[in-house]
Amino acid sequence: MGCGITQIFSGCLEFSVSTFDSYVSSDDVQDRILGNLQAFLSKGLMTQEDATALLGRVNHYEDLAEAVSDADLIIECIPENMALKQDLFCQLEKLCRLDTIFATNTSVMSISEIASKAESKKRIVGTHFWNPPYLIPLVEVIKSDFTDEDVVDATMAVLKTVGKHPVRVNKDVPGFLANRLQHALWREAISIVENGIADAQTVDEAIKYSFGMRLPVLAPLENADLVGTDLTLSIHEYVLPHLESSPKPSPYLKALVTSGKLGFKTGKGFMEWTPDEQQQVRDNLTKHLINVTSQKD
Asked: pTM of the full predicted structure?
């Protein structure tokens, strides 16, 4: 995630980008970003000169204090460990200007809890980039219990400048916004398989070849207004009592994990996957995202 986010900002001439990672060298950062750029180069969406110029704008430091000394915005991408994140922001407070904005990239952890041990809690904001960050436009900007509105506004403005699509999340709740929606769908999909209504491949096909095709241009609440809120209410009154509503993970999902069926990691999960099939899924995703994000209105 860190290299992908670095790539985003390095592609914008308005910003100077500095990176620090105690486990990754400057060469590693360059290699990872160059690997990401290969798909753009192969499709003719970027020249080699453009790629070289982008890489040349990445400044990697071996010392944290030197990397952040004059930063306007810091985005941390360290592991999802609460104590590590809390300690990092306490450390950064001693190294940065008073007006430096601190952004934490997390998909699940409470921004308010992350900020709780810092003295200047008001300048800490959540920025949930979606993976791969250089291809998916959305960034959730999460306001904690302490975050100043000016900090949220400034973060949104910076993200728009680098070509992202930031959305404001007004409450710091588990899963924020998009992950809540995503996992509500996953819960029902798993339940359908668990209850023998359809197998895993059929569930995925049903999504890909129906409402999944229209989601980019007709989202759920737009669709509800399109068909009418009265019809939506009528459908919900009938079908919602029959949908999965368990607040706990599926026993079927737990059984897969217990039996070592971990998906791509082991070649078996909800479905079976050969190495070639796994690579095809990854390649299809990258190709699709590049095609979508490179299209002009």
From this structure: 0.92
